Amino acid sequence: MFWFSCAVLAASFVFEGPISEAIPELMSLPLLALALPRAMPFLKSFPSALALVVGVIALPFLQLIPLPPELWKALPGRDFVAEILTTAQAPISWRPISLIPSETWRALLSLLPAVAIFLAVLSLGPDARRRLLLVALGIGVASALLGMLQVLGGGPYFYTFTNAGTAVGFFANHNHLAALEYALFPLGAAALAETQTPSPAILAAILSAVASALLFALILTLSRSAVILGGLSAAATLAFVLTPELTVLGRRRTLALMGTFALALLPIAIGLGLLHILSRFEKQDLGEDLRWRIAANTLAGLKSYFPFGAGLGTFSSVYPLHEAAADLVPEFVNRAHNDLLETLLEGGAASLLLLLGFIAWLGASTYRAFVREDAVKGRQARAGVIAMWLLLIHSLWDYPLRTMALETLFCLCAALQFEAPPPRSFRFRRGGQGEADQITHNRRGHFPAAKHASRGSLKFLHLEAESKITTESLWDFTYCPRRTHDTLVARTGDLGYVVIAREQGLHS
Q1: What is the structure's pLDDT at 85?
Q2: SS3 sequence, 79-116?
Q3: How far apart are CA 277 and CA 289, in angstroms?
Q4: How many Å apart are CA 99 and CA 314, to the nearest integer?
């Protein structure tokens, strides 16, 4: 299931648009079939997780239920449709709440990858979650490198309507690439910090290289949101995600390392466009931004359809009906640039209740991740909380969560707030060969990587008694002082079982 999750996550990041989004949607179907049965015990154990899944899926389904003509005509904002049908002498048949059901179906299908990833991550262990975050980080770095090519080499751009001349990566909008990169700051740092490296210096070098790539991509987007939220993300990552590593380094070394890193990158950042971003704050009056006029028209439409909403996915079709003549622009307005207003316009009071419930849950998850969890044990949860809050803040003046990539990443972060399932168990019988899915050999005498005993890496000759060995206990295997020829005696650190293992072709 891990590899299915990687495929769906990668497809969600790479494919965007009404047609290409069908690829991750179709790919998510087998993942849903695998993940749902495994996630059911966790959904029963965590009612909040069940409520999140049911709430997200139930709203569009409710908006697609046909209503009797008289009841439908009584809904707010349906009078103009009724007048059109009457003028055309067409009968008013049973119709759903959604003004454009096809668009609501399209919105419902676009949720498939996000829901599939959420359910899959619920049933993944901590190490599998870490590796999935590394996959997301790898795609983010690839997007950053692609953004650099787009700015320095003039392409390639994958969409006709895009922010040409800036870094957009696999997106059409530069703000969405900025959102991906600042969200990956804490998530990538958490994954890399939990990855075993030969020395802390190598870990620091990898973190610096990845942070540089993400930072350069943020600057090349020329997005004002990138400066604000990227700075917040970097500060929160250092303060709350990398706390154990920085504590080991000490305050002076940490400040010296950060100062050196900043001084080395600042000239490059200025050359890549940091000054241009800062000049936009001065030259372009935020009060004259088109977003404010779109928000005012969206608010007018919201009042017309509240409390039932116009239907998920219908914004671009119903917005022109409420656009003031003074606010007409040549550009096509496809989003409200304020996800709160757009969600309320489309979903009405039901979406407001879902949103308030989610904010309450996120607040409780934030408290649990930052106050109750251990600094190391709760690292992934804290990284997910930081990324979710930043994306929600960004949604107040943009629409990052309307893209499948960031929507899927957001659901991954939500799943990280739930405790990972206990490790799978392995049974070994006296005199038999078992598969040890988390065992291999290294010089220190531990067994942290994945190999299969039956394929010749290690052979279990016998146990003193039939025993149950968990994955976590296998992580604690160490050599006993005794060694006889090619036979190694290993002891689990927490259970105390003695295992006789034979080494084949490995020496240390």
Answers
A1: 80
A2: HHHHHHHHHCCCCCCCECCCCCHHHHHHHHHHCHHHHH
A3: 15
A4: 7
Answer yes or no: are the C-beta atoms of 176 and 400 closer than 8 Å.
yes
484 vs 69: CA distance, rounded Å = 85
Which of the four pLDDT bands, split at 50, 70 and 90, describes residue 244? Answer: confident
pLDDT tens digits along 449-461: 333 333 333 333 3
- For residues 112 and 105, the answer to whether their CB atoms sit within 8 Å is no
> What are the angstrom distances between the C-alpha of 411 and each of 115, 118, 493?
7, 5, 36
* Predicted pLDDT at 117: 96
Cα gap 460→499, rounded to integer Å = 7
Task: Classify 283 as helix, strand or coil.
Answer: helix
Backbone angles phi, psi at 491, to 5 degrees: -130, 135
Helix (H, G, I), strand (E, B) or coil at 412: helix
Q: Which of the listed ranges 1-10, 17-26, 453-462 does the model predict with the highest average pLDDT?
A: 1-10
For residue 375, pLDDT beyond 80: no
Nearest partner of 453 among 507, 485, 499, judged by Cα: 499
What are 91's two structure tokens? 């009968």
Of 109, 177, 118, the C-alpha closest to 142 is 177
Separation between Cα atoms, residue 371 and residue 437, nearest integer Å: 34
Q: How far is CA 404 from CA 28, 68, 74, 111, 123, in A?
A: 12, 34, 34, 8, 22
Q: How far apart are the first and last CA of the chain?
A: 34
Cα–Cα dist 380/478, whole Å: 27
Pair of tokens at residue 268: 């490059």
b or e along 110-133 (b: 16 or more beta carbons within 10 Å of the residue's beta carbon)? bbbbbbbbbbbbbbbbbbbbbbbb
Q: Assess whether pLDDT exceeds 50 at residue 476.
A: no
Euclidean distance between CA atoms 473 and 422, whole angstroms:
12
Integer angstrom CA distances of residue 328 from 122, 335, 405, 493: 46, 15, 31, 70
Is the pLDDT reported for residue 259 higher than 90?
no
pTM for the model? 0.79
The CA distance from 324 to 317, in Å, is 15
- 435 pLDDT above the threshold of 60: no
Q: Is residue 126 within 8 Å of residue 191, measured between CB atoms?
A: no
Please tell me which of 145-159, 237-251, 278-292, 449-463 the model is most confident about, judged by mean pLDDT. Answer: 145-159
Helices and strands (H, E) in the chain, number of each type: 20, 6
Contact 14, 139 (CB under 8 A): yes
